Each structure stands twice: as C-alpha cells, then as structure tokens.
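step=encode ok
step=design start
structure_in=
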C-alpha cells in the first residue's frame, strides 16, 4: 500500500512538471542592461495576463529606485513586439492615461526596433520628474489575441523600457525571456503529491515493516 501511495505521489509530481503550460499569464524580467551607469540585476518585471479571448493586459512594475523617463529618441518609455495582423487597440489604464500615451512603432537603442511603443510625455528627462509606475494597459483585438502573439524582435528582445536606474544613469533596458506562470491546478497537483509522499514516509516510520 505504501508503495502504491509513493508511486501515485511521484506520478502526480511528474505530471505537474511535465503537463502543457496553458498559462493565463507570462512574466519577463527587465534585466538586460547595456550601460552599468543605470544599474544591475532586474530593474523591473513585465506581466502579461490573458483577460479574455480578445484582450491581454500588461503590467510593467519597475524595481525600487527605478522610474520611467523621457529622454528622447531613440528611447521610448516602453516597447514591445506584436505579430497580430488583425486590427487592435491599446488603452492606457487610469490613473496613468494622462502620463503615458500610445505611440506607433519605434526603436529602443541598443535593442532594436519594436512594432509598438508607449511614450511618457508626462515624464521628465531625468530624476527631476521621473515616474516610478507602474504602467498598466490593455491590448484588445476583436478577432482574438493571445500571449503567443507577443514575440521577440529580430534582436531577440521582447520588451524594452527607458528608465533612470538605482545608479543614477538613464537609458534603455530590456528582456529576452518570457516565462509562463503555472495555473493554480498545477500547484494543487504538486501539493497533493508532496502530501502523499509525506504521509507515506510518516506511515513507514510509525509502522516499520
């Protein structure tokens, strides 16, 4: 019986780690920093959430002592790449709709070109009027849109942001990896498996064979 419990628990844990990632969210760390005068490590996290079949929500949360700036071209407050051919709309969520504005395509040197940018005319060129964020906006397409529609550009970068960092320098940072966030049932399956293994180990200890 103990062996059966152990095998079942092991199978559940294996399944939790190998089952397809039908994630409703993905995250990406803004940790590519070409200029050390900006800072080091991760200076922000981009989270994409599938709200519905036709809408994806962005949350761009910068790290402590990091803020959006408006230093001029080729720099944009935030840039991303979208491969959707059908019409779509981008809406900045309140209360930052007066600070950020939706732009067209753009370049964030040295990370290349992006199909979409968000500008920050309400931000200053440096620490005097930098905006700490977060930046929240939605991308809506009546014909449908998914997390897989947000792709890397030709340089391999998914997102880029124009910031002033903890070290006091300004410039663009970027991210080149997106990681799926497992659905709650995946965590539940993992916890059940670990619980069964714990019960099995306790049973063997109390009733040695």
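sequence_out=
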């Amino acid at each position: 019986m103990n062996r059966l419990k152990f095998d079942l628990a092991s199978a559940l844990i294996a399944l939790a780690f190998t089952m397809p990632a039908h994630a409703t969210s993905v995250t990406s760390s803004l940790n590519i920093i070409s200029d050390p005068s900006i800072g080091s490590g991760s200076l922000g996290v981009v989270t994409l959430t599938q709200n519905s079949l036709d809408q994806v929500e962005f949350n761009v949360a910068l790290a402590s002592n990091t803020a959006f700036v408006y230093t001029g071209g080729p720099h944009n407050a935030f840039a991303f790449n979208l491969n959707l051919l059908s019409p779509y709309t981008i809406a900045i969520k309140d209360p930052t709709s007066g600070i950020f504005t939706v732009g067209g395509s753009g370049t964030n040197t040295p990370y290349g070109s992006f199909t979409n940018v968000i500008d920050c005319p309400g931000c200053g060129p440096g620490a005097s009027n930098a905006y700490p964020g977060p930046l929240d906006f939605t991308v809506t397409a009546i014909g449908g849109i998914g997390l897989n529609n947000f792709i890397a550009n030709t340089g391999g970068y998914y997102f880029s942001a124009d910031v002033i960092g903890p070290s006091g320098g300004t410039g663009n940072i970027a991210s080149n990896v997106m990681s799926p966030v497992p659905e709650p049932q995946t965590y539940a399956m993992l916890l059940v498996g670990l619980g069964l293994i714990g019960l099995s180990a306790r049973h063997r200890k109390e009733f040695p064979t």
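step=design ok
step=annotate ok -> The chain has a mean pLDDT of 84.
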